[in-house]
Design goal:
Blueprint lengths: L2 E3 L2 E6 L2 E3 L2 E3 L2 E5 L9 E3 L5 E3 L6 H9 L6 E4 L4 E3 L4 E7 L10 E6 L8 E6 L11 E7 L12 E6 L5 E4 L4 E3 L5 H6 L12 H198 L6 H7 L10
Parallel strand pairs: 9-16
Antiparallel strand pairs: 1-2, 2-5, 3-4, 4-7, 5-6, 8-10, 10-13, 11-12, 11-14, 14-15
């Protein structure tokens, strides 16, 4: 849709397919005084991409519609707004956004980069009802705060209380007081018109021109006064703007802290839930183990009862055997007493025999000592005898010994038995 604007023209395209390319919303300003011939200036983002086979442009439009910058849709946006008339901004809140009382709508110069680049803003009112359907809203920008530069383009942007852009309008321009689009169109060099007027019409036009000149002088004075007020208001607006963004930063920090606290609480709850689940699982395992142990104990109890019955029968038998053993023990005790008496008598007899044995041993020892003495005497006699015989042999060499003497010297020695 072309329209004349400051010596050039603006073309606007919301969504169209051209050949095999899909084009999204774009604004182009061509033929400006400062631009080269045949050159155009892009005032807002132009997005083109190849259109895939079997791709539906309406489907792409729906995906763009649900994107971050399409959660708020501005409708009925004019191409031009007068600076002396309040501007009404109509927009639609989609179901993708949750409105907040601190959301706001600002007028941004095309080429903005952050939410702080706004020229002026108004608070976005909360909808009368909250539902999942689209909600139509409207805000008004007072004429006093509107931009006065007619050579720039601007956009409406919806900003959340966190400072996030959630919607942007198509670009538009502003015109100063007393100017009209029709005058611009009439002054376009591309159109030629023949104007025929009478003398009276010319004089009336001259009077109107003089009156307009006088009014223009008055307006210049008023404009100077207004400029001073505008500077004061701009200073105030800058201060309010800084306070607004300070409040936004504080609110953002509070929201971040709240989100962090919520996340910590969620993690804590999840950890507690996990611990409770583990505890419950542990208790279930313990219960199963205890049930198994109880069942085993019942089996052991039954087995012990059976063993107890068997043991009672064995106990009766053992009791009878015990009684017999006690009777036998009594007999053995009596036998033991009898044997002890016999042992005592034998010990007495053994003591007597021991004394006799000791006495006999002493006597034997004395006899052995005497026998040793006798043997010693016998050995001496034998030795003496050999000496005598030696002497006799020496003597027999000189004279024959007398028979009576020799016979008297050979008397035999007594034997040990005779001794």
């Amino acid at each position: 849709l072309p329209c004349s604007l400051a010596g050039g023209f603006v073309t606007h395209s919301a969504l169209a397919t051209r050949g095999n390319f899909l084009m999204t919303e774009s604004i182009t300003w061509a033929g400006a005084e400062n631009s080269n011939p045949g050159e155009s200036q892009v005032l807002s983002h132009v997005s083109t991409r190849p259109l895939a086979m079997n791709e539906d442009p309406e489907h792409d439009n729906s995906s763009m519609y649900s994107s971050t910058f399409a959660q708020v849709i501005f409708v009925n946006v004019e191409k031009l707004y007068m600076t002396d008339i309040p501007v009404k901004c109509n927009y639609t809140l989609t179901s993708k956004i949750a409105s907040h009382k601190k959301d706001w709508i600002g007028i941004f110069k095309v080429g903005w980069s952050t939410a702080r680049d706004y020229h002026t803003f108004v608070w976005a009112p909360l909808p009368k009802w909250d539902s999942l359907v689209e909600r139509q809203q409207q805000v008004t920008f007072e004429a006093y705060y509107l931009p006065k530069d007619e050579n720039d383009f601007y956009q409406f942007c919806y900003v959340t209380q966190k400072g996030e852009i959630r919607g942007a309008s198509t670009p538009f321009g502003f015109r100063l007081m007393g100017q009209s689009t029709a005058g611009r169109l009439d002054s376009d060099s591309s159109q030629e018109m023949l104007i025929i007027t009478t003398q009276e019409k010319q004089e009336e036009t001259e009077r109107e021109r003089i009156e307009l000149k006088e009014n223009n002088l008055k307006l210049i004075v008023e404009n100077a006064t207004l400029k001073d007020k505008i500077k004061e208001l701009e200073t105030q607006v800058a201060k309010e703007k800084e306070e607004h963004f300070t409040a936004l930063e504080i609110n953002k920090k509070e929201v971040t802290a709240l989100e962090k606290q919520t996340l910590e609480q969620k993690l804590k709850s999840e950890l507690e839930m996990k611990a409770q689940n583990e505890k419950a699982e542990h208790l279930r395992k313990d219960l199963t183990e205890k049930e198994t142990a109880c069942f085993n104990l019942q089996k052991e109890h039954k087995s012990l009862l059976a063993k107890m019955e068997t043991s009672q029968a064995s106990l009766e038998q053992l009791k009878q055997k015990h009684e017999k053993a006690v009777e036998k023990l009594k007999q053995l005790q009596q036998e033991s007493k009898r044997l002890k008496a016999e042992i005592s008598a034998k010990e007495t007899e053994l003591t007597c025999l021991t004394e006799v044995k000791n006495k006999t041993a002493n006597e034997l020892k004395v006899a052995q000592e005497n026998l040793e003495l006798v043997r010693f005497d016998v050995e001496n006699q034998k030795k003496r005898k050999r000496e005598v015989e030696g002497e006799s042999e020496e003597v027999s060499g000189g004279a024959e010994p007398a028979a009576g003497v020799r016979g008297g010297d050979q008397s035999p020695a007594p034997s040990p038995e005779q001794v």
